[in-house]
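#lab-general

N.A. 3:47 PM
ok so I finally got the sequence cleaned up, no stray characters, all 326 residues accounted for. can someone with queue access submit it? mine expired

B.Y. 3:52 PM
send it over

N.A. 3:53 PM
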Amino acid sequence: MWMHGHNLAAEVAENYRDFAAEARGRSRNYEVLAAAVADDPDILGYLETLPRPKRQPNLLFAAARTLHGGPVDAGQLRDLVRDRRDDLRELMLTRRTQTNEPARCATLLPALARLPQPLALIEVGASAGLTLLVDRYSYDFAGVQVAGLDPLAPTLRCEPLGPVPIPDRVPEIAWRAGLDLNPLDVASQADMDWLACMVWPGEGDREQRLADAIAAARRDPPVVRRGDLLTDLPDLAAAAPAGATLVVYHTAVLAYLTPDERDRFAAIMRGLPAVWLSNEGPGVISGVPVPPHDGSPFVLGRDGSTAVALTDSHGAWVRWPGPDGW
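B.Y. 4:20 PM
back already:
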């Protein structure tokens, strides 16, 4: 029994060390905090009492931030685990990591713009639906501007690496819908406060960008249906209009499924008349090859079999292969 617990603590600690590496250069607060958790037996012991999907750093840090009223340091997190253990546990069990980073639209835009227009979009794991609004935002690819349909929506900045096919206009969206186990409501201040707590501290203008995207969504809210991507996707896909290219896409979603569930989702996608764009960590989609890379990028895959691009997990850059490959 001790060995099982020891292995579990080591696994959780390793997860937090990986997160610290991912946060390096992006959020000093989270880099230091994650490294501290990895070496703290009391916090690791607390995390071991939670179900596996509830142990991840983003969820713990956002829940702590919610209870504390702002970002915490290692000592404050230790105090919360000791003094407000039940409150922290309840929040982590009822909430999900539903990072809804609008800048991810910038990494999807070149792929979407190359498809036959108009498009019908379905995002699985859509959270509040902010990444369904691809055509509303404007874009700045290292000085190359693409104007969106909502002049009040934020301009998303993304560094293009390699021969990225930057479009001259946003895609034409005929229809859009999201699917999520627990949709967040853009009209709910509590839900939007939770989204804001998912933003990593110290990440420049990311919090303001989120606030501006929420304001854009509130002007014309996207439909996000409550449902499970393994059971409810075909019915939602059937509601898409004929004459539009159906695109099913997701970012940082399938990593939360088991390998068997990912295979089931891939089988569902093969049965749908849709283009499948997956934006996930390397190896999450088993059929998508992993290009050579540094750091912790996502791989933008098409139809479960082709690597289209490498992307930053929060939309800061996108890399397309050149004629000689990656």
